[in-house]
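Worked example 3 (structure in, sequence out).
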């Protein structure tokens, strides 16, 4: 994600809706920041200064139930060498404190 693209995206949302972008996005029950950003880059900027790569640098758990401790450990253990981060979608209900404990950041 590029800061200048995010700022332009927020500015466009405000221009189109005549309200602050936070108010516009916050009024939507469901939205995906990834989809909004992707639309801005692909459809409005025609991909300028961006690229689509096949690498997934972040291993993400998007849907389903929260992982058990063992499932979480397997999830992390199965990361590809190029993956440097994990993402747990907020609505699946995984407690951030539990994640920090499982990866050893609770010290």
């Amino acid at each position: 994600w590029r800061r200048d693209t995010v700022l332009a995206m927020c500015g466009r949302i405000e221009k189109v809706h005549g309200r602050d972008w936070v108010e516009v996005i916050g009024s939507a029950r469901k939205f995906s920041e990834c989809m909004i950003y992707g639309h801005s880059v692909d459809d409005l900027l025609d991909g300028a200064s961006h690229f689509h790569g096949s690498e997934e640098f972040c291993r993400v758990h998007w849907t389903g139930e929260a992982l058990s401790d063992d499932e979480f450990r397997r999830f992390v253990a199965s990361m590809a060498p190029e993956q440097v981060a994990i993402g747990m979608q907020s609505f699946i209900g995984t407690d951030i404190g539990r994640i920090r404990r499982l990866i050893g950041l609770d010290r």
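Notes: The beta strands are 58-61, 85-88. The chain has five helices and two strands.
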